[in-house]
Amino acid sequence: MKINIIKEHNITLYGALREHTITLRPLSNDHLPLLYKWNTDPDVLYWNEGPDANPADNDNETVQAIYKDTSNAGYCFIIEIDGTAIGECLLCKMNVDYILEIYPASTDVRRIDILIGEKAFWNMGVGTVIVKMLVNLAFDNDTTDVIYGITGDYNKRSGRIFHKNGFSLFLKRPSDNFHDKNGIELHYRLTREEYENG
């Protein structure tokens, strides 16, 4: 019997970057080998999880648990460029308590995360297009009130991606993810009102 780890949905999104087609397809158990590979690549983990990320911490069981949790909290996608899988992304319910405490309980707070696992596709502008696709999904086709993108201060590229999509820097705080106590977490935010007026 096949164990269902990743909860699937039925949404596929299409976008373009210059001459390339970008497709976001539902993430599934079939993508687990790619997720294992990307989540144990030291270079990928540096940009995705921070300077202290240890590939040895992401054994198959841990990776399964991560994607089981996130896929149950929202939409997880495999990112394809011209039919080639290059990474994953998600639009999910916010799971950080100190952020949720800012808002009334009825507020629909989401977060966007992106992992580009194939390094040949870094620095092409893919992330900017993907964030736009996910923002449009959240505000045009869902009940989202506010979206966050959270990154470390060492990752200037992620900050630029969110800024290009209308997000503004909302909060700086010491990061819980870094052993280096000087590590700062940057919270970029976009509200529905800002999106509709943008």
Average pLDDT for all residues: 91
Strand content: 25-35%
Broad shape: globular
- Strand line-up across the major sheet: 1-2-3-4-5-6-8-7
Q: C-alpha Rg, in Å? A: 16 Å
Determine the fraction of residues in helical runs and give it as a percent range.
Answer: 25-40%
Which regions contain 5 or more consecutive residues with pLDDT less than 50? none
Number of helices: 7
Distance N terminus to C terminus? 49 Å
The computed structural class is alpha+beta
Number of strands: 8
Helix-strand string: EEHHHEEHEHEHEEH
Main sheet? 8 strands, mixed
Describe this structure as you would to a colleague.
- This protein is an alpha+beta fold.
- The protein is 31% helix and 30% strand.
- It has helices at 32-38, 42-49, 60-72, 97-100, 126-140, 156-164, 192-197; strands at residues 13-17, 20-26, 74-81, 84-93, 109-116, 146-152, 168-174, 184-191.
- Strands 1-2-3-4-5-6-8-7 form an eight-stranded mixed beta sheet, sandwiched between helices.
- β1 (13-17) and β2 form a beta hairpin.
- The longest helix is centred in the C-terminal third of the chain and has 15 residues, at 126-140.
- It is globular and about 40 Å long.
